[in-house]
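Protocol step 4 of 6: record predicted structures for both targets in the notebook before any analysis. Target 1:
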Amino acid sequence: MGSEAGVSPASSLVEERGVASSAARLPRAAAAYLLVAPFALVLLLFFVLPIALTLVVSFWSYNEYSITPSFTLENYAGVFEGCVSRLPELCTTFKTYLSTAKFCVSVWALTLLIGFIVSYFLAFHVRSPAVQIALFLVCTIPFWTSNVIRMISWIPLLGRNGVVNQTLTAMRATGEPIEWLLYSDFAVVLAFVHLFITFMIVPIFNSMMRIDRRLLEAARDAGASGWQTLCNVVVPLCKPGIAIGSIFVVTIVMGDFVTIGVMGGQQIASVGKVIQVETSYLQFPIAAANAVILLAVVLMVIWGLTRLVDIRKEL
C-alpha cells in the first residue's frame, strides 16, 4: 500500500505517454518496412536471385549430354586454361578481355568527350529553360527507338556500296570503296558511341545544372580565364556525374554482344560474345563461370570509380 501510495500522478502520466509513444512507434516502423518491401522484393527477384543462381551453376560439372549439380572448379580452370603456361604470350581469355577493354576505353573516352561538350553547351550557353529542355529532348528522342534499329541503320551508310563510300568515290576522294568502315573495330566503336552517348550526357548535364552560377562569376571576378574556370571549377564539380556516366557506359559495353556481333561481322571477340556462344551450345556452367568473372571485373571497375569520386552527392 505504501509503494502504491508513493507513485505520483505525474510519474503515472509520463509512463502512460511512454507506452503510448512506443505503441505509435511500432506501427510507424512496420509502415516503413512495408514501403520498402516491394522494392526489396524486386531487387531480390531480378538482381540477387539471378546472380546467386549464376554463381551456383558456375560450380556445376557438365558434359556434352548433361549438367550435374556437383561442386567443381573445372569451369573456372577451363576459362583460364593455358593462360599461365603460355606467358608471355596471351591466352584466348586474356586476348578476349583485352579486346573488350579496348572497346570500353575507346567508347568511354569518346562518350565522355562528346557528352561533356554537349552538356556544357546545354547547361551554360543556352539561357532559356524552354530552349534548354527542347534541345535536351532533341538529344534524347532518337533513343526512344530500338537499339537494334539504330544500330542497323549504320549498315546502309557504311557498307561497301553505302552512302559514305559512294559519296567519297563520287568526290574522287578515294579510288575504291573503303572496306574498314563496316564490320570493323571502327564500326563497333561508332555504334557503341551512338547507342550509349545518352548515358553519359544525362548525369553530366545534371551535375552541371547543380553548379552554383555564383562560383563561375567569382572565378571570373578573380581573373580566371575560361579554361581555368573549366578545369578548376566545372570539371571538379562534375566528377560525380562523370563517374555515374562512366559506370553506365563501361558496364553496358563490357557485357554487350549484339553490337559487336552485328557491326563487327561476327569476327570480333568480346567477353559477352563468348558467353553468348557458350550459352547457345548449352554449356551453361562454363558460361556462368565466365559471367561471374566478368561481373567481378566490372565490380572492380565500379569500386575503383567510387574510390575516386563520391557519387552519393549525385544520388
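Target 2:
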Amino acid sequence: MVGRWRKPVASMALALAALSAAPAMAQNKTLTISWWGFNGDKLEEIILKPFRAQCGCDLVFETGNNADRLNKIKIRGGGGVDVVYLTDSYSQLGIQEGLFQPVDRAKVPNINGIYDIAKEPQGKFGPAYTVGRVGIIYDSAKVSAPITSWNDLWRDDLKRRVSLPGITTTAGPMTVLVAASKAGVDPYKDESAAFKALDQLKPNVVKNYNTGSELVNLFSTGEVSVAMAQDFTLAQIQAAVPTVRWAELKEGDYATLNTVNIAKGAANPELAHQFINFILDPKIQQTLAERGVDAPVATAVQLTPEQASRWTYGQKMISSLRRLDYEKLNAAKTDWLDAWSEVFGK
C-alpha cells in the first residue's frame, strides 16, 4: 500500500537541516507534514502539486506509522512538524499529551461543508478528512443465514469460522465493546463480564489477524468465513472471494476517523490552516474518492453507486455510525491487553 514517492519526499533530518540553514522568509514558505506516506503518487498529483502551486511553498515530510510519528513529536515537545495526520485513536493521545494546538475554524471555511461527524470529532482540535467503519464481513456462499447483528458472532453455526482483529490493531479494542454489549454491561465499568463474553466467543474464533493482508489471506484460503473488519479491506477480499458481503447490522457499525491536526510547536501554523482547508475542498475530496484514495467527508461530493460501494459514504450511512470515546478507550487499553492475553493467549 505504501506509494512510491516521486518528488516531495525528503528525510526529516534533511528537512530540519534545510529549515535551520534557510533565511527566515524561506522558513515561512516550508510546510512540514507528518503522515503515513501511502498512495504517494496519487497524493502528489491530487493534493501536493496543486497546493504547492497555490501557496508558493515547499513541502517536506515525516513518514511512518501512527505510534512512531506521534512518539517523535512527543520527544520534540510538539515541534518539528506543522501538520499531523493520525487515526482518531492516536490523535486523542496527542491531544491528551498537549502536542496539538486548536484549529481556528475561521481559517478553514471548508469545514462548514463536511459531515458533522468530521467537523469537531475531538473538540477544538483538528477535523477528520476521511471516514471509515468497522463492521462484519462474511462469505455469503458459506454462511447460510445472513448476519444482521453483532451478537450473531456467537451463533452456533459459526463455530471455528470467525476471525477477530488483534487487540493492538485499530479495530481490536472494539471487540471488547461488542462483547460488553453482548453481556449487557459497560466495558469501562465491568471489564470482567466483557471478557467472559469474549471467552464464550472463543470456540467460534479460528485466528486473530493483525493486518489487512492477513485477513485477505484467511478468506482466500477458506480458513474463515466471517470477520470483524475495517471497510478498507472489503474490496481486496471481494477480489479474491466475490461472495463476501458487508453485513447490515441493526446496531450499526463503528466509525473510524482519520484526523489532521496542527502541532503545538508548528513553525508555520498559518500555512497549516491553509493546507487543512485545501484538503477539505469538495473538488479535492471528489477526486480522492474517485481515484480510490480516501472516502469523502465533504457533503457536496457525488459518487456513482459503483464508486460509492467501496466507501463509507452518504448522510444515511454516516449518521448510522457509532462513535467511540477514545479518552476512555485509551485509558482502558493496558488492562484490556492483559485480559485479552488471558483469553486468546491460552
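Step 5 preliminary note on target 2. The mean pLDDT is 91. The radius of gyration is 21 Å.
Proceed to step 6 after PI sign-off.
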